[in-house]
Amino acid sequence: MAEGGRQPPRSMPDRSEGFGERLLGLLLDRAHEMPPQLIAPLVAEEVASIGGRDVSILLQDYGQELLAPLPGRGLLVGGPEPIADSPAGRAFLNATAVEVPQADGVRIYLPLLDGSDQVGVLAVTLDTVDDDDRRLLGRLAGLVADIIVTKHSYTDQFFQARRREPMSVAAEMQWSLLPPLAMSAPQVAVAGILEPAYNIAGDSFDYALNDTILHAAVFDAMGHGLEAATMATVVVGAYRHARRAQVDLSEKYTFMDHAIAQMFGPERFVTAQMMHLDVVEGTLLWVNAGHPAPLLIRDHRVVERLESATTLPVGFGGQRPKISGRQLQRGDRVLFYTDGVIEERNLAGETFGEDRLINCINSMQPAEEGLRGELRRLSHTLKEERGGHTSDDATLFLVEWRGDTADHLTLPA
């Protein structure tokens, strides 16, 4: 015992950069062949080695309202955290660490970022926090996000944690088809959201950033339930096939039209809207097959409906659509949406309408929560305006052209 009967001071754990590199390397080496159910205990064990405790992994639920705790040995599993009003939610929406002083230390909430897609939040408590701790925990959170994304494709554990209510078979099909709900780069950002999250059927969206061109599309398959979900699956598959064959916008329509007509006959259809955005120049090209006109948003206000020539919905054998174009300004956003957003009726039987959609956009206050957070807030605002009711699929897909340089590697040699 130390002089005077006092306990010797507890040694501080090593969280220097050199130690951190070894720790992350060890975690990566161990995670390669680790079964999914042991990922959480592994993370908790490694965090304990640097003096951390009360580790929680929180994943976004399908409705984008809650951060749901991932169960696992060694994890602190409590109730879900609201995204709209909690330290965990702020870390998630703003993609930055949030520190909350507590009586026994500091609770740190770190965004789990896979590239730019917010997977969830890692929460851990330390006695004290300095810059070495912040650097190490930030890198640890990035590695944990990558591990979760890698492992989730062959386990149901992460899907089950995110599910807060029963999901229909059609919705199960649609969620398995979607790309990440958000993507951001210095040149461009996108975000999408679908309602009703647990009963979506015919709506879908897809995108890919290939070199300097962002390819994106929004779809609305006729009907409800399994047939609509099946049509959406076929049209997305045909769209991806055409995109990877590097055909132009109007020819993509032909690929999809043939696929839907061959599979479902002449009485079934899918409405669609497809776009190309040159992320260097800001040139937007799009075609429309039966969708409402997208909205151009500048300085957080709708400045124009992007009217264009239309063709028949996919499956009806329409003429190849005419390509429309517009030069964007830096910071411009373009909102694509399906008709369920504006055709929903409130309890009084009134149609929601495009004017009310535009009013909702214009009345929203700018925030620091990023494109995904703002789209999420818009979707939930629209749902509240409809009295919390969504009887038809309602999809929002938002594109922002930033026009910055991605990296020196993009410059000519």
Automatic annotation (TrEMBL):
InterPro entries: Bact_Sigma-Reg (IPR052016), GAF-like_dom_sf (IPR029016), PPM-type-like_dom_sf (IPR036457), PPM-type_phosphatase-like_dom (IPR001932). SUPFAM superfamilies: PP2C-like. SMART domains: PP2C_SIG. The keyword Nucleus does not apply. It holds the Pfam family SpoIIE. Keywords: Hydrolase. This is PPM-type phosphatase domain-containing protein.
